[in-house]
Amino acid sequence: MDDLVAEAERRDAADPLAAYRDRFLPADGVLAYLDGNSLGRPLRATAERVTRFVRDEWATRLIRGWDEGWIDLPQRLGDRIGRIALGAAPGQVVVADSTTVLLYKLARAAVDHGLAHGRNEIVLDTDNFPTDRYVLEGIAAERGAELRWITSDPACGVTPDQVAVVAGPRTTLVVLSHVAYRSGFRADAPAITRIAHDAGALVLWDLSHSAGSVPLELDAWGADLAVGCSYKYLNGGPGAPAFGYLAARHQGVLTQPVQGWFGHRAPFEMGPGHEPAPDVRALLSGTPPVFATVPLEAGLDLLAEAGIDAVRAKSVALTDFALRIADALLVPHGVRVASPRDPERRGGHVTLCRADFEDVNDRLWKRGVIGDFRAPDGIRIGLAPLSTSYAELLAGMTALADEL
Ligand SMILES: *Cc1c(COP(=O)(O)O)cnc(C)c1O
Predict the structure, then answer these.
(1) Predicted pLDDT at 154
(2) Which domain holds residue 39?
(3) pLDDT by residue (tens digit) across 102-148?
């Protein structure tokens, strides 16, 4: 234990990102926040920006604000996320809707295109995030497509070999999470994308647990479609809108089903009949959620300043330290590590399991140690590198050990 305390101190002292912790608003009564992968913490700058937006933009510019920049916000912020976090060239990302809704729009666009070309199978896995599975089940029922399930190991994730077995001449779309929400397993995205393309299928990556934590190279992977949350590692705030990526080569080819006026070629002509915009704006449906993106701008400023590579380096070190604490303090008490040991295959969180963890997690919340429980028996230790110290991680996991 003394060794771990000394190591946490040493690592915090040497941490090049340590100063960023002070950019976040304090949380009274919280001993350890280990849930930044589910809801990122607010920045001090966020509070100021929200006030400034209400006073200087909404109150003062009023409806003129739309012509002065609000209209372009979905693409402007999308380009920024693309540059800072996704490895996507401009013109391929928008901010809109929720992850669930954007996933529906993109997946249906791809499935409709496949159906028109004699392909009717959607590949997905049994352990993907519930909303992804439910949306795809709905699309399959709606369009008469078939689901091809990969049975994934909940403590690990989907491998290229598993995709190669199911992807074939009937496959229209493969939908997977890049970092698995349960285990933190990081899929081999370039290899899986290649396998799907070799079968003539498209791939939709859910980047909810990757964006802002793991460097992404959507363009270099040859990715087709992607979605993700902005309220997790991007600190956009509760329910902040999602981002969607539609590779340039698919624009004007794939058409999404929620054809509202903001995705029209010329929204303010208000003409008869829908004509989709020829670019990524075709992903939009209605009025952009301008107010809900104000915190996201502060989160992106911070990530741009720190740099995703530095964030990833600390993320690997934090998850590594979490596993060493688990081995020293928890595994002897019957706790099982349900995340990959190999940092190459790991995202930004680790999951620990024991039969009584639902109760244990309730007790931890009462002590101000905030992780989250995932049925049936897992506690996720989420580690947001810009807001979490090694000492905080150790304090939280020591409290967990204490509860056992
Ligand atoms: C968090 C998360 C979501 C959430 O979708 P919402 O529409 O924002 O509720 C979707 N997919 C994955 C993989 C997630 O981790």
Answers:
(1) 79
(2) 2-44+307-403
(3) 999 999 999 999 999 999 999 999 999 999 999 999 999 999 999 99
* 193 shares its domain with 249: yes
Ligand 1 site, residue 99, Cβ cutoff 6 A: yes
User: How far apart (Å, rounded) are the C-alpha atoms in residues 37 and 232?
Assistant: 5
Pocket flag, ligand 1, residue 100 (CB < 6 Å): yes
Q: Which residues are catalytic?
A: 129, 206, 231-232, 380
Work out the angle at residue 225's Cα, subtended by the Cα atoms of residues 221 and 228, and round it to the nearest 5 degrees. 100
State the average pLDDT over residues 73-82: 98
> How many domains does the chain contain in total?
2
Ligand 1 centre and the CA of 100: distance in Å?
6
Residues 252 and 340 occupy one common structural domain = no
Which of 303, 329, 350 marks a domain boundary? 303
Kindly state the percentage of the chain with pLDDT values over 90: 98
C-alpha dihedral over 186, 190, 194, 200, to 10 degrees? 70
CA atoms within 13 A on the CB side of 342: 9
Residue 153 has pLDDT above 90, yes or no: no
Residue 286, pLDDT > 90, answer: yes
CA-wise closest residue to 179 among 162, 152, 158: 158
- Coil vs helix vs strand at 185: strand
Structure tokens at 381: 């230790």
pLDDT confidence of residue 384: 97
Q: Provide mean pLDDT across the span 381-401.
A: 98
> In terms of domains, do 18 and 91 share one?
no
Q: What is the CATH number of the domain that holds 334?
A: 3.90.1150.10
| Cα(208) to centroid(ligand 1), Å | 6
372 CB less than 6 Å from ligand 1? no
CB of 35 closer than 6 A to ligand 1? no
Find the angle CA(250)-CA(138)-CA(142) to the nearest 5 degrees.
Answer: 80
208 pocket-lining for ligand 1 (C-beta < 6 Å): yes
Probe residue for ligand 1, chosen from 100, 102, 243 as the CB with the greatest number of ligand atoms within 8 Å: 100
User: If you measure from the C-alpha of residue 176 to the centroid of ligand 1, how many angstroms do you get, rounded to a whole number?
Assistant: 12
Q: Which residue has the tokens 């999470």?
A: 177
Evaluate if residue 367 carries a pLDDT over 90.
yes
